Amino acid sequence: MSDVPARISVREVGPRDGLQNEDPVPAAAKIALIGSLARTGVRRIEAVSFVRPEAIPQMADADEVWAGVQPDPAIRYSALAPNLRGARRALDAGFTEIEVVVSASDTHNRKNVNRSTEESLDDIARIIDEAHQRDVACQVIVSTAWGCPYEGDVPVSRVVAVAGRAVADGADSVSFGDTTGMATPRRVAELVGAFRSAHPDVPLNLHFHNTRGTGLANVLAALELGVDDFDASVGGLGGCPYAPGATGNIATEELVHMVADMGVSTGVDLDAMIGAAAEAERIVGRTLPSQVLRAGPRTRTIPG
Ligand code: ZN
Fold it and tell me: Is 148 a catalytic residue?
């Protein structure tokens, strides 16, 4: 395990990716949750997405939510934008980091945004240019990186080629998203190895889902390859859009809990994150999948 980093960067995606896949909740609850997360020590928060309200009503209040957040200067907040119009809204709202998304699977991309992967990459090149003109960093998220709900497995060469096009167009970093929860440790090693060989210097984030119970195993496989940047969602907020009732994002407190015992620092206070997970559970009014939220940390004892 010699390549395991001493420190990793955790991006908390619960307020956006998580809540986007739950029943709509009031803006005030989102603002409060972002505030609670800011007090956990996490240094990156994906706050909102700028999408058409008809497409994703859960994010219709993005401007209101962001206006209500008191930004902590120690935290990097980001917004997701599905297209140029959304990106301009994010830039106008003052975000200094934006994320754009393209699917490695042509069928998935067409179903999502009615464009081919190639056409989306053309749009993304323009978004990157506009972001850079305003000194804003742009991450390109390659979704369905470990499999598509329509096409099944997506070849590693295809995923790396899509990411490579984004890198060539100026992406500041790349994220691979396991949209469907089809990643396994072996497949993580294959994709990370192929991407690193092609682009050794490009910052890489990984976004795992625990849909089939391999979420943290995938993180461990990536850690052993030196990956030091992961997404996670407080409480495991957010479901899987392709399997009703199934689990989506890995839970932030489970990630922090596991790596802390490996001596890997995150800067996140575990108890504070568990508290934020309990708040997230109250907000959405359903039991969240996080097992560390249920059981508490491994060091917790009961009075003998
Ligand atoms: Zn996700």
Answer: no
